[in-house]
Specification:
This is thioredoxin-dependent peroxiredoxin. It catalyses: a hydroperoxide + [thioredoxin]-dithiol = an alcohol + [thioredoxin]-disulfide + H2O. It contains 5 helices and 9 strands. It is an alpha/beta fold. The protein has one domain: Glutaredoxin (3-Layer(aba) Sandwich). Strand 8 and strand 9 form a beta hairpin. The two termini are 23 Å apart.
């Protein structure tokens, strides 16, 4: 499980629009990684739209923002196109990055348990350390809260 103050686990993942993204190559910019369960579901769409709507403000604060799920690059592309998303979406189909960030967890719905991605966001500072973690994210107001944390770095 990742914790605040730790060096963020490095990775390289394919994105839906462009070259693969390597976390360590983003330095010295702060990075926001938001993990979400599934493309084109209600909560995930609202979250992606919120981050996309604030992307220019994140960029003005010097930060980069990436959404990560286990959906394929092709599915991410359709999701972005359907909702005019501007935030790059990274595909972790193998689930390795989700595991290393501790967001692949046991969940339950209607009395059944299953494994899935916990909605979580990680703010990584310019030195590559985890500055803040939000777990079990509630979508309304979340992107705005993360933007304020970026500005406070």
């Amino acid at each position: 499980m990742t914790e605040t103050g730790q060096t963020a686990p490095d990775f390289t993942l394919p994105q839906d629009a462009g070259d693969p993204v390597t976390l360590s190559a983003q330095r010295p910019a702060p990075v926001v990684l938001y993990f979400y369960p599934k493309d084109d579901t209600s909560g995930c769409t609202k979250e992606a739209v919120a981050f996309s709507g604030l992307l220019t403000e994140f960029e003005a604060a010097g930060a980069r923002v990436f959404g990560i799920s286990k959906d394929s690059v092709v599915k991410h592309g359709k999701f972005r196109g359907k909702h005019d998303l501007t935030v790059p979406l990274l595909s972790d189909e193998a689930g390795d990055v989700c595991e290393r960030y501790g967001v692949w967890v046991e969940k339950s719905m209607y009395g059944k348990t299953y494994m899935g991605i916990e909605r979580a966001t990680f703010l990584i500072d310019g030195a590559g350390r985890i500055a803040r973690i939000w777990r079990k994210v509630k979508v309304p107001g979340h992107a705005e809260e993360v933007l304020e944390a970026v500005r406070a770095l």
